[in-house]
């Protein structure tokens, strides 16, 4: 377990903590005489988790510690964090439910495509559109978290959420195109090879059956030609 993968797992552990802080109204503490209320605490947790997303990828590339489990686990951790934050924002009535459903559904669809691609031996990497969507998600969720007690941030958060919807749909189309270009063609070729091998096996089995029947018939005719009836005295 290297440091980048440890940071990815740490981001997953941030998820229940973020939800707990968001759904509780009277969570907070005093730090140096300054009251840290639940919206600021939720923002600190969310930004810390988002920072681990940037840090683990940077360290994995710099230290050449890119692993298969890290490649598959990193997007899952991102989706868990964003999905939990959006659902919690719907719970506290700061975000329309349909927006959260659209973004979360997109995340599940892309995760499914990546899983199928991984099973076929391909890795679909994050596109620039996906990274832009992630940045816009962090900005939108941060504004909506602050609007929990500071309503002036709500309008900016909703404008940013419309940007999230736009980039989510656009990046989903990009992932589907990559999937059909790489995996779809590979699956079609593999299916053609399987059908061709099946047809060859059938033809081979038919030839073997025909050869067996021909041998048995030839044997029967040979016996008939050499057999002679007994002589009658």
Notes on the protein architecture:
- The protein is mainly alpha-helical.
- The chain has a single domain (3-189), classed as Four Helix Bundle (Hemerythrin (Met), subunit A).
- The chain has six helices and two strands, in the order αββααααα.
- It has a two-stranded antiparallel sheet with strand order 1-2.
- The chain is elongated and about 100 Å long.
CATH fold annotation: Four Helix Bundle (Hemerythrin (Met), subunit A)
Low-confidence stretches: none
How far do the termini sit from each other? 101 Å
Count of helix runs: 6
Radius of gyration: 32 Å
Fraction in beta strands = under 5%
Number of domains: 1
What share of the residues lie within helices? over 70%
Shape category: elongated
List the strand order in the largest sheet.
1-2
What is the succession of H and E elements?
A: HEEHHHHH
Write a compact overview of the structure shown:
It is built from 6 helices and 2 strands.
Entry keywords:
single chain, 233 residues, mainly alpha, Four Helix Bundle (Hemerythrin (Met), subunit A), two-stranded antiparallel ribbon, 2 strands, 3% strand
Secondary structure: elements and pairs:
Blueprint: H1 3-23, E1 29-31, E2 34-36, H2 38-62, H3 68-91, H4 97-119, H5 128-146, H6 154-226
Antiparallel strand pairs: 1-2
Helix pairs in contact: 1-2, 1-3, 2-3, 2-5, 3-4, 3-5, 4-6, 5-6
